[in-house]
Write a structure and sequence with these properties.
The complex is a heterodimer of chains A (425) and B (350).
Chain A: H1 7-12, H2 19-26, H3 32-47, H4 60-73, H5 77-90, H6 95-106, H7 120-125, H8 129-145, E1 153-154, E2 157-159, E3 166-171, E4 176-183, E5 186-198, E6 215-218, E7 236-238, H9 244-248, E8 257-259, E9 271-273, E10 277-279, H10 281-290, E11 297-301, E12 306-307, H11 309-315, H12 317-332, H13 335-339, E13 342-347, H14 353-367, E14 372-383, E15 387-397, E16 404-413, E17 416-424
Parallel strand pairs in A: 3-11, 5-9, 8-10, 13-17
Antiparallel strand pairs in A: 1-12, 2-14, 3-4, 4-5, 5-10, 6-11, 7-8, 14-15, 15-16, 16-17
Helix pairs in contact in A: 2-4, 2-8, 4-5, 5-6
Chain B: H1 18-22, H2 28-39, H3 43-56, H4 61-73, H5 77-90, H6 95-107, H7 111-124, H8 126-150, H9 218-223, H10 237-255, H11 259-264, H12 278-290, E1 295-307, E2 310-321, E3 324-337, E4 340-348
Antiparallel strand pairs in B: 1-2, 2-3, 3-4
Classes of the chains: A alpha+beta (425), B alpha+beta (350).
Chain lengths: 425, 350
């Protein structure tokens, strides 16, 4: 008797169904990232007395989907179908899960050659929906197949003071957001989530260009979900686009948020938004509960480069020297020397260098020759056509109890680092 | 096929009462008593009652079947395998003993044997193939629903519900060696729709499915094979070619969903399966064929032998349609009527 190959056999024969996914995933063990995330949340829940004990659901839907892929990879289609049945029952709006469920059902009666092996008529009617779901699947799987090397951090995070308890990095090419906890011994990756970015991709330049900005940002507020439309899902965390580098470059637009998904969609395609970064609601909720407004940096890059923490410190050394030279000049009180650190097109909230110089003079008068100390220094590097640093620190004169929290934007001009923005937070 | 598929056999379900429903009501009390004892967990009592009954009616397939189930429940796997094996020998046309053998073999990780037994179960009883086709349709329907949700298509235009084939007749076993078994025929009239849903056992999809059109005549065919005449010289080469052409045009009419030409390939003597009326059978075939968006029929190893104005065509039929692909060995008996070769019998299985 002739046997129709079941789905499992198709995978073994190297047919395209989930080749990039299930087979490789079968080799993956449990996901340590999420295990760590769960532990972390449990600890926080105890620490924050006011927080109700909520079962952590971030990342769970994806873990269940990946488990189904693994079962398919192990030729356990029956079990995979049972798990898929339960997943779509729990999350009927998880379209990718519906697609895999459909494939598993279809595979009972015919060969299934590709993920979303839908009838031609349906594929035509679906427009781009099918290719988007396939892309979502691919990106989810690839992000898990190629996790960041253990102990590495995105190259932008050169120095992050303990004022920032968490940090976020987005890799647009992988459709992935990484959440870090900033500990005294360095940044620890605690969880990572599938995300969607702008319909037209990244590199936002103009208002309405449906692109997600690239750069170093900070979360500016936490919008109450009750005040939001259903479209934004479980909450919204706006970021400070356009930042000072964006403004210097004349970029326009506003209202770039990290937010959740509408009731009709558990997740959205990789390229789907008007420029925001969109997470599934359980994932966004976890971010909202975890991160702090104003001190949490959000780096958004086309592709993150993961490097060892000590190597970024070495790379950041020339900049650190420039920053300390600026501090020393300020301690010495030599106005001309201090001004040499600023670019001609310097801007401080609308003031030119000439207009801002009185502010600088006033600061020097207060210091009166005392040594200036920089505390809690963070500097994040952003390199595209220019090499820039977003620097945050507390500036305190010796013997004075309090100082100012400042943010500066520096740009490297040849081998010289220069300040093109300075402001008080 | 490699061992890769074997884990799928694990969740096999044992048939218990399906057979009980299929047989006579004459001995209902004895069967009921044994079944009740069994369900109450009184296995030794159930077994002794079954043995007592079998002492007077040693051939009775129903009680032997129950005995096998009791033995299985009691953990006497070897005894249960023996009981079911003997049943398959005496009643090769019954699918249930094969199915239960498969369950027992799978429990011993003898997956090759389990697979063979399940293939026999499917092959022996055409109503099983109907159930498979129904199941295929249901799976296809469910898949379509899931795809619609996945692709966020408008579901306000509901797809046509799958037409499921009704099993119209209970299977009446024939005894060993072609004799009618001692069981009186089922008392219900044959037209009563008895089973509107598939039988309770769903074999693994990894198994080849029985053919779509298998009429329930296979068992009979196995018992009374048509006398094979020695090759005669009367069959001209032309007749062979014509009969072969008739088979091929039957297949292409089917694939082209040309129902009229397809039905015209069957002679007046053709007996529809399960004592169906010809018109009912034709309607069923029509619905089955036109409901498929596309059908592919490929014939392999077509071998036609002609004996006078009768011909037998044997071939492997590879059938593919939306949501279903089946490969099977098929035999068509043809008779020459005027200058046309028409199908008078259609059976499946080697």
């Amino acid at each position: 008797m002739h046997h129709r190959p079941p789905l499992s056999a198709i995978i073994e024969m190297g047919c395209p169904y989930l080749v990039a996914t299930a087979v490789a995933l079968a080799l993956l063990g449990a996901n340590p990232v999420h295990a760590a995330a769960n532990k972390h949340l449990a600890k926080r829940a105890v620490h924050r007395q006011e927080a109700p004990v909520i079962r952590n659901t971030d990342g769970v839907a994806e873990a269940r989907l990946i488990n189904i892929y693994k079962l398919i990879g192990k030729a356990q289609n029956r079990e995979a179908l049972a798990k898929a049945t339960q997943l779509v029952k729990d999350l009927p709006n998880f379209q990718l899960a519906q697609l895999v469920y459909g494939d598993l059902l279809a595979a009972r009666g015919r060969p299934v050659d590709a993920i979303g092996d839908v009838p031609d008529t349906m594929a035509q009617a679906a427009g781009s929906n099918l290719s988007e779901l396939r892309e979502e699947s691919k990106r989810r799987v690839n992000a898990l197949r190629e996790p960041p090397p253990p102990g590495t951090i995105p190259s932008q995070f050169i120095a992050l003071s303990q004022r920032s308890r968490h940090a976020i990095a987005v890799d647009a090419s992988k459709s992935r957001l990484y959440l870090f906890k900033n500990t005294p011994t360095g940044l620890n990756l605690v969880s990572d989530y599938y995300i969607s970015v702008g319909k037209a991709g990244t590199s936002k330049t103009l208002e309405g260009d449906q692109r997600t900005p690239l750069g170093v940002y900070y979360i500016t507020s936490n919008l109450d979900r009750k005040s939001l439309k259903d479209f934004y899902g479980s909450g919204a965390l706006p970021i400070n686009y356009p930042n000072m580098l964006d403004a210097k470059r004349g970029k326009t637009g506003s209202g770039i948020w990290l937010h959740g998904t509408p009731p009709s969609q558990f997740s959205r395609p990789p390229l789907a938004t008007d420029g925001c970064v969109v997470l599934a609601n359980p994932d966004l909720s976890h971010l909202v509960k975890t991160v702090e407004v104003r001190t949490t940096p959000v780096v958004i890059a086309t592709q993150l480069h993961w490097v060892a923490p000590h190597s970024v410190r070495t790379e950041g050394k020339p900049f650190e020297d420039a920053l300390h030279a600026w501090r020393n000049a300020k301690t010495a009180g030599d106005l001309k020397q201090i001004l040499s650190f600023y670019t001609p097109d310097f801007n401080s909230n609308g003031k030119t260098l000439a207009q801002w110089t009185p502010t600088l003079k006033a600061e020097l008068a207060t210091v009166q020759g005392r040594t200036i100390q920089l505390k809690d220094i963070s500097f994040l590097r952003w390199t595209d056509t220019s090499d820039t640093m977003v620097v945050t620190f507390g500036e305190v004169a010796e013997g004075i109890r309090t100082g100012l929290t400042k943010r500066q934007y520096w740009m490297r001009q040849d081998s010289q680092w220069k300040i093109f923005f300075e402001g008080v937070l | 096929m490699k061992h890769a598929c074997t884990p799928m056999f694990h969740p096999l379900r044992l048939l218990t009462l399906a057979a009980a429903m299929m047989f006579s009501v004459a001995h209902a009390d004895d069967y009921t008593d044994v079944s009740q004892l069994m369900r109450a967990g009184k296995l030794p009592e159930a077994l002794s009652k079954a043995d007592q009954y079998l002492a007077s009616k040693p051939k009775d397939p129903q009680m032997r079947f129950l005995k096998g189930v009791i033995q299985r429940d009691a953990g006497k796997t070897t005894d249960a395998i023996a009981t079911f094996t003997h049943l398959t020998e005496d009643y090769p046309e019954l699918p249930e003993p094969y199915n239960n053998l498969a369950v027992l073999y799978a429990g011993q990780s003898q997956f090759d044997k389990a697979r063979a037994a399940l293939e026999m179960a499917i092959r022996t009883n055409p109503s099983y193939s109907t159930a498979h086709e129904n199941l295929g349709d249901v799976y296809a329907k469910l898949a379509s629903q899931a795809y619609n949700k996945a692709l966020q298509l408008d579901a306000s235009n509901p797809a046509v519900a799958p037409k499921l084939a009704l099993i119209r007749e209970l299977f009446t076993p024939t005894g060993p060696k072609g004799q009618k078994s001692g069981i009186p025929a089922v008392s219900s009239p044959p037209s009563t729709p008895v089973a509107a849903k598939p039988p309770p056992v769903l074999p693994s999809p990894a198994l080849a499915k029985a053919p779509v059109t298998a009429p329930p005549e296979t068992a009979v065919a196995a018992v009374t094979p048509p006398p094979v005449a020695p090759a005669t010289t009367s069959a001209s080469g032309n007749d062979t070619k014509e009969a072969e052409a008739a088979v091929r045009s039957w297949a292409s009419a089917w694939a082209a969903k040309d129902v009229k030409a397809y039905l015209a390939a069957y002679g007046r003597e053709f007996a529809p399966p399960g004592s169906m009326k010809r018109s009912a059978w034709e309607n069923e075939r029509r619905e089955r064929i036109i409901s498929k968006s596309r059908i592919s029929i490929k014939l392999e190893n077509l071998n036609v032998t002609v004996n006078g104005n009768k011909a037998t065509a044997k071939f492997r039929q590879n059938y593919k349609a939306t949501g279903l692909a089946v490969s099977s060995i098929k035999t068509l008996d043809l008779a020459k009527s005027g200058d046309r070769w028409l199908i008078v019998r259609e059976s499946t299985g080697s």
